[in-house]
Amino acid sequence: MEEIEIVMEYCDEKIIIPEGYEEKKGKKRSIVWNYFWISNDKKKTRCKLCEMVYDDSSSTGNMSSHIALVHQHQVKFFSFESFF
Questions:
Q1: I want to staple 52 with a disulfide (CB 3.0 to 4.6 A). Which of 47, 64, 73, 80 is the partner?
Q2: Number of domains in the chain
Q3: Any idea what the Cα angle at residue 82 is, between residues 71 and 18, rounded to 5°?
Q4: Which residues contact 82 (CB under 8 A, 6 or more apart)?
Q5: Cβ distance 8 to 1 under 8 Å?
Q6: CB count in 10 Å sphere of residue 38
Q7: Which residue range is the domain that position 25 belongs to?
Q8: Element containing residue 65 per DSSP (H, E)
Q9: Tens digit of pLDDT for each residue in 45-67?
Q10: Of residues 59 and 77, more confidently modeled
């Protein structure tokens, strides 16, 4: 699989999409998807900031909590109230 270099809107670093993951496709109803990739088999999500992996890709609750608690000093441009 070819590594794709992308630039995130919310940070100054270039990030490589890891093998086996992709950007969530279709309508993104939660802002948290800006910070996570979804596995190609749609069973896992992976944080773009620290590479933490969650087994359940269907719920954004754990992902939102992760961003709010672990990355509160890294995330810019919105308030954490927008997650909940």
A1: 47
A2: 1
A3: 45
A4: 31
A5: no
A6: 17
A7: 5-82
A8: helix 61-70
A9: 999 989 899 987 667 888 888 88
A10: 59
